[in-house]
Specification:
There is one protein chain. This protein is mostly helical. The protein has one domain: Hemerythrin-like (Four Helix Bundle (Hemerythrin (Met), subunit A), Up-down Bundle), CATH 1.20.120.50. 59% of the residues lie in helices and 2% in strands. Strands 1-2 form a two-stranded antiparallel sheet. The longest helix has 34 residues. Keywords: Iron, Metal-binding, Oxygen transport, Transport. Belongs to the hemerythrin family.
Length: 177
Amino acid sequence: MIDSESNDTVDYGRLVWSDDLVLGVNSIDEQHREWIALVQAFESAVTEGRPAEEMRSTLAAAVAYTESHFADEQQVMEEAGYPFLDDHIGQHQLAWDRVHAFASGEGAGELAEEEMRRSLAEFLPQWLMLHINTADRQFARWLKGTMAPGTAHGIAPGTAHGGPTGPDGRVFGDIPV
C-alpha cells in the first residue's frame, strides 16, 4: 500500500487486503477478505478514539468472525486430509486464547481497558498477516501439490503455486504452525 501523505513510502504496518494475500483457495480467500475488513474496522475504531461502544461492537464482530473462520478453515483442511492440521489448530488456539483474553478482559492486570484495546488492535492485524502468509499459505501450497491434474478443490487457476518443500513436506519447516 502506498501512503500518499508520507512521500509515497510503503506502509507495512497497516492491514490491507491485496492480491499478495490471495492463497488461491477461494472459500478461504473470501473469508480472509471479510475478516480483514472486520479487523480493520476495530483497528480504526481504536486508533481514531471512537466511542467505547463502537470499539466493543467492532471487536465483538471480529471475534465472532474469528471463531467461525477458524472452524471453517479447519474443516477445509480436515476434508483435504492436511497432514499438519493439528499444528494449524494449535496455532489457531494460541491466537484464539490471546484474542479471547483481550476481548474478555481476562489477564488485564494493570492495563486499562483502553490499553488492552490498543494492544489487541496491534496484535490482531500483525498476527493475521503473519498467519495468512505462513501457515495458511503452506496449506494452499500443500493442497495444490496434492491435486490430481484437472481437479479444482476450490483452487483458483494460477494461484497457490507450489514451492520448494522440506523433507517433511512443509514449505516453511522452520516456522511453527
